[in-house]
Fold this sequence. Notes:
mainly alpha
Amino acid sequence: MTKKQWKKGKWTVICALAGAGCLLTACGAKSSEKTEAGMKAVEEQSYEEALADFEQAVSDGEDLELVYRGQGLAYMGMGDYENAIVSFEEALKQAGMFPSNLEYDINFYLATAKYKSGDAMAAIDTLDAIVDLRENDKDAFFLRGSAWMKVGESEKGKADFEKAIELSRSDPDMVIDIYEVLANYDLSEDGKAYLNKLLSEHPKDLNEFEKGRIYYYLEDYENARNNLENAKSNMKKPDAVTVLMLGRSYEALDESDYASGLYSAYLQENDPDAEMYNQLGLCKLKAEDYAGAMDAFTAGLQVEDNPYRQSLMYNQAVACEYLGDFEKAKGLMKDYTAAYPEDEAAKKEYAFLKSR
């Protein structure tokens, strides 16, 4: 997985698009107009439009396995993992007797949806079957390792991660993704060991962007900044991932004003980007520019079908609270808790705001 394919590692849903070409070409499966239109809409993160196309594809009698697969990807993009699971399972019901690459592909995304829905053991069961038949599937080992971590089986998780690194030939994106998962479970030192090994054993195989990312996670922010600046200067038009990583490096070096300028410049010169707006808002919050933060979070929420909606909604309410508008903050937090009832910390914050 390259930085251009994904902004946020393997868990942002467009990772599913790594297999999208399989849908219409390599798998050799029959397709038609509305299915193709739906997949194009998924690529563009226009998920509501995609679902409408797939619904029409069902009515038009197009290949149902491909239609339901695409529908599952659209639901994943919207963060609706329960409906994604239903769609992927429906796609598998349309499959033939003998599994092909398409069925393996659908099973992998089914496992991802189960993992994201919180049912890690169900994801592991699906991934066990994939690994049994495809013992060199590095992504399946990565996902299963992540699922093992989620259920508290860290040794099994690390064993799968090491297999994923071996199979990917120490691909830096894989190693960084593994670091991020381990860090989420307070095992960042284990993750840093993988990063340091990558730097020491494969220095000539890493480009400046990759080195910058690695140094960032190793908390060597000066080297991170220097490598990322070099990577940015060599680009005709810097991409969002490079700008975000560079900006975060400057923030870590207490140069938030410069980081804010980087984010703002990118947003002025490119299409609206929800993650960039969110990071700009966080940067302004840190600088105590609460009005600027509020503006950034609000602008980010205007970006349609974006996967950062939850973070943006919460941060918008926080910025409003810092501005002293407790009545409006209460309303925003009420909306947030209604949309994301599983966030216990937000419920406590809402209770606090109601008491003001």
